[in-house]
Amino acid sequence: MEYHLQLELWRGNVAGALQIARQRNELSDWIVSMAPLASHDLWEAVSAEYAEQLEDDGQYHKAVTYLLAANKIHQAIDLFRRHKLFKEAVLLARIRLSPVDPILEDLYTEWGQNLMRDGQYELAAKCYLAMRHIQEAEKALAKRHDQSSLKTTCHMTLLVSDRQQSLVYAYKLFSQYLMMGQWQEALNFSQENETFKILQPILLTHELLIQHLTALCPSTNFTQKPVSPEMCSNWGKKDICGSKTQLPEYLLDKSEMDPAVPWEPFLIGKHTFPHHVLQVWHQRLDITMVTQELKAMHAAISQLVPNRQLMVDLPALFVQISVDVTLGFLALLTSETSTAIVHLVQALSTLDQAGHGTALQALCRLILPQ
């Protein structure tokens, strides 16, 4: 067949040789290279047909080269897109088209959706960020659920001034830190932005709870790895007992302890655990007795966990319990006694429903000393 085509070319019948090759779907590099001898229009048409032939053979990159030679840029981009070669499609579009061409956004969107289906959430987020779709990018990253992705998601959400959604992601990240006993990491994260400081009371409450519960139940693991002194957060190593900044004395009065309770009161220095926590809050977090500020903090933390989930894993349970205890103590500071009781009962019932009797008894000694 090749000799027959060569004979037609020797005769000067370039168009005839090309017609034979096109009819038999036997176009090749050398026969297409002869097309300009016939006419420019014929060369463009033959190049496009040869690209189709190459596409059918799976030679996508070579096919695109011939489409570009025929000045069929959009068809070349579409060829890459049809075969899920989005990286090449985007690169070609960025090189050959205007930066504001709508096809770029379509490519990034389809590429991002394809990556999401494949579970490549980080790459999908990059696609959405390329289009400045920050909210879509944060949703993609949040599906990963690891600390690095959640941390990035928190800061991305702040870029679009969505403080509440950023706090939701921050709480998920915070929960992971607390379950691992990574209190210093949680503290460092909470100090990265003013928005995240609302989580610091939960951090302090959880750290103090776990440390003292571990002393009461040394054989129980309240975090995913055994508690050690190196895990404790560093708030500047201030002396709490010697601090000049103290809560009002009526909050620290230990004379109210009821001797009829069925367990021995657990004292930290001269104070019960609730009093100790309030003192630490006041000294390290500058939590004052301003009712309006306390209620605002209570409302903000309550919104982070609108739905309670039934859990059995002790480290995860104590993150939820720490939130309950934090809310209970905040309610006490605002004289909302009934609300405080609800939160504290929820903390205890959470352990009871999960069947952790030993941990329940220890928690009762801490938060119900009187």
From TrEMBL:
GO cellular component terms, A-Z: nucleus; SMN complex
Residue span, Gem-associated protein 5 TPR domain: 2-183
GO biological process: spliceosomal snRNP assembly
Organism domain of life: Eukaryota
Recorded GO MF terms: mRNA 3'-UTR binding
Pfam families: TPR_GEMI5
PANTHER family: GEM-ASSOCIATED PROTEIN 5 (PTHR46362)
Protein name as annotated: Gem-associated protein 5 TPR domain-containing protein
Organism: Candidula unifasciata
